[in-house]
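User: Can you fold this complex?
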Amino acid sequence: MSKPIELRPDETFVVNVGPQHPATHGVLRVKMRMDGEYIVEAETVIGYIHRMHEKMGELKTYPQFLMNLSRMDYLGAMGYCHGHVLCVEKAAGIEVPERAEYIRVIMVELNRIASHLFWFGAFVMDLGGFSPLMYALQDREYILDMMESVTGSRLTYCYFRFGGLYNDIDDEFIAAARRFIPRMRKSMAKYEKLVTGNVIFRKRLEGNAFLSKEVCRKYGASSAVARGSGINFDVRKNEPYSVYPEFNFDIPVFHECDSLARYNVRMAEIEQSLRIVEQALDKLPDGPIMPAKAPKIIKPNAGDYYQAVETARGSFGVRLVSDGGKTPYRLKLRSPTYSNMHLFDETCTGMMIMDALAFMGSLDLVIPEIDR
Amino acid sequence: MSLTLLNVIFAVVVAIAFAALNAAYLVWAERRGAGRIQRRPGPNINGPFGLFQPPLDGLKLMAKQLTIPGGADKILFVAAPVLSMFPAIMSFVTIPFSEMIVAHNMNVGLLMIFAFASSGSMALLFAGWSSRNKYAMMSAVRSVSQAVAYEIPMLITAITIVLMTGTMDLMEIVRQQGPSILHWNIFPLLTNSHNLLMPFSFLIFFTCTLAETNRAPFDLGEAESELVAGFHIEYGSMGFGLFFMAEYANIVIGSCLTTILFLGGWHPPLPFLGFIPGVVWFLLKIYILIATFIWIRWTFPRTTIYGLLNLSWKILIPISLFNLLLTAGLLKVF
Amino acid sequence: MIAETTKKALQALFPEPAAAVEEIPASPETEEADKAPKKEAGPRPNGVIERDYAVHGYHLDAQVAVDQLIDAVNIVDQNEFFIETITGVDWIKEGEFEVIYDFSRYDFEVCRVVIRTRVPRDNPQVPTITGIYAGANWHERETHDFFGIKFEGHPHLIPLLLPEDADFHPLRKDFKP
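Assistant: Here's the predicted assembly.
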């Protein structure tokens, strides 16, 4: 009487992870076809907060567009502003005083630390540990307070100008930054003990979501996603821009290709950013923060320009096609997470949902930046 | 006859009151504890130290509308929260808080608690199944496989105790653990088995309690960041409230059981401290255990479902089986 | 070094007009650009130009015909470049769309390659490169969203960033919101 159980190939169901889901950190949606807890296939649906920054870039003049950049990646806004001003300065041939560049680097690196800290907290929260987020936010708060005193805003900075900066840093800021560095190092040791050494944490991440070099290359992954796969790629070193060649810092590279490697890269990057800030504060030259004859109206030369910078989330590129007018003819913003997120569909196939969401956390997603 | 009936009703009412009060104030304790761990105040507005927060929360939950999702299995959906609360309360009836304070002692008290404990996972299955939600369904399946996996080492460990004490009567188990800390089953140097591995048994039992009560790091049924809220994703109002209370009631039951089986119940750690009533020692022990629960929850990240099952089937069950055999052998020797 | 080999490989795609391309040297052209908008006397011929990295931010600038695109991307792929991005530019006066592919390298031999191709505005069709670079999928979908450029052979060419029923292409210069 016993008949073998028929395995029907269509015994799968679709789970909509998002647009509102705690693990997606925003309005990202992943349609997952599941076989029990296993993902058979996944399709990422993005664009829920698409704001067409590129069209705004064409409609607004160059200075008007400055504040849009920080609305893209609200956690690591400085890096994006840096890429944009560098590209326009290159196109318009504007010289930047050295002091301004140093301050830019300090700001970008502090912002990178803040961004990594937030990622760290959110990532551990994805894995079910709540407390590290609070600790990380406390350290991040210190940076935000510091940056607020100079830039006037806490999250969406509009601090860089074409040719320089909006505001010079004062002694108070420098003193606060110097106090911050040892404090952050102490915190890092604490995180190391609390999270990195935790056996559950390691067990979950070791071997999770193997990303080969080839996959990274085909998708154009950057930041810790590439560096966790053994690719020694950091725009700050590969294509030095601004005053980065002046500093002595390392690019942490891990070869395990798993989520733990990506985690380790970011945690090691915080230390490297601290080193850069330390050196920049030591070397900070005196001088103006805006060039003497900064042009009132920015009119870059006609042509096609590209500038890549390393932001907290990876290689951010600005392609500026100018026709010599007051507004760009075309402004393309290459956002790093867009490429990093694209990996997800292919990689998460066959994984369990909890591993896939841990992997998603390790990509360090900021949705407004994917959607632009 | 009528006296016994009254007795039982009284016992159940007291049990419900104790469970509800504990659940409410454990939520407060949990939030304050989390606040302390995370360097923030926690609830501190309503009343001194935020002590009015739990009743106000309860009031809010009761005032909310109970929504039943379209297409849900109504009867099961409504029954599930009640079912989850019921075993937790019933288990209180047989727990001896001291030599005197026990609602109804029976000679198979341990068996009764385990019987009720296993019916708890049925409530989760009903909740997950009836809500017509995929997340809830996945969570229900997880919870059941988790409950099955962790009941085995828990029971084996309990059997070890039963072997040592020769009884399933909770009162009797406690009585045998007097008078000092060296007679407790966790350090059984002076009891009849002299099994030095009992601390491991205690750890296994404690881990299983964590898993059975769906607490972090084994809260895979809830798993906010994966399954949103798990089996109670569709529950609002007091349906959610009951699940919440059941979770904390289960924690109390788990701590009580651990205390009774391993930590000497109402016995003071040293004989000369006997002037303090037993119930104080008992409550002190269970609240220390509960504080450990809270501490663990806010410190550890969540495990994975396969990590959880591996831990149970590949580590806990073999160790507890070994310990059972060892205890049996030692009992024969001494 | 890698720039040289890639340039040679790409130049092999243009047997005849290679000489014509050589006539436009890289540096004078860019310096002239400081003065006046560059006049190249009509559309730029297909070919590879080496650009000044300090000025433009990339090293090789290859304009290819639509049917040469796959070959060019293959060359880039064989030289182990990674895909940066794909985008379009609407040259409405010339009645053409330009599709721009950016490639770069992971190692320290910095070389950014730009491959561009032009298609008529009224029938914009470009072969997909998703077969070569899987990561081109989203970039092509985005370009399709914004410009309405059809990528033939693309497995899933539906709106990505725009709403799923969007029938407009906002980055076209004649787009009126």
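The first strand of chain C starts at residue 47 and ends at 50. The beta strands of chain C are 47-50, 60-64, 82-91, 96-104, 113-120, 125-127, 150-152.
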